[in-house]
Amino acid sequence: MELKRKIERLLPEEIEKRSFEIITEELKKRGISLPTEQEKITKRVIHTSADFDYADTLIYSKDAVNIAKELLKNGADIVTDTNMALSGINKKALAKLGGQVHCFMADEDVARIAKERGVTRATVSMEKAGNIEKPVIFAVGNAPTALIRLYEMMQEENQYPAFVIGVPVGFVNVEVAKELIMETEVPYIINKGRKGGSNIAAAICNALLYELA
Questions:
Q1: Which domains are delineated in the chain?
Q2: pTM attached to this predicted model
Q3: Active-site residue 47, yes or no?
């Protein structure tokens, strides 16, 4: 079988570097120039997903990257809505800055309360995270109900997260949940539309952490 393209022979440690070179080349071919402060985050999301749509759909509130980095430098925690996102975030890098990553979705009390109230575990998880007594970055990659509950907590209880990474994926309430967060004064990184996922949430967190390494 004849190969149509030449295989690149790379050492393992060279693969990621080459991937980012390809991303940079493709963005240039597409005529896309990313804002300097957003470039590393957006490129890491593209690297994670191989989806160049993120160059257009990732939305950053004013000074979002610098705000998130300052929070992390000062020991902010991260709360995710899936254990998949939790497992993908570089916990060693976060710990060096004094932060921890949490996911309450599998907690027995969360499951029990959610069942009793007829709501999602993501809803109750956000409420539980509200008890963390330090600044929290919420990284939501799966459940739009998590973003909706965060919005409700802001409106009803005057509880404001320090930062929101809102990239849930799906069809039901996904777009409106993202739009609700964008209506608030909370700094955010949001992906417009239906795309996203736990891997995207983790990639954004890691991109921010790697800038501080």
A1: 12-211 (3.40.50.10230)
A2: 0.94
A3: yes
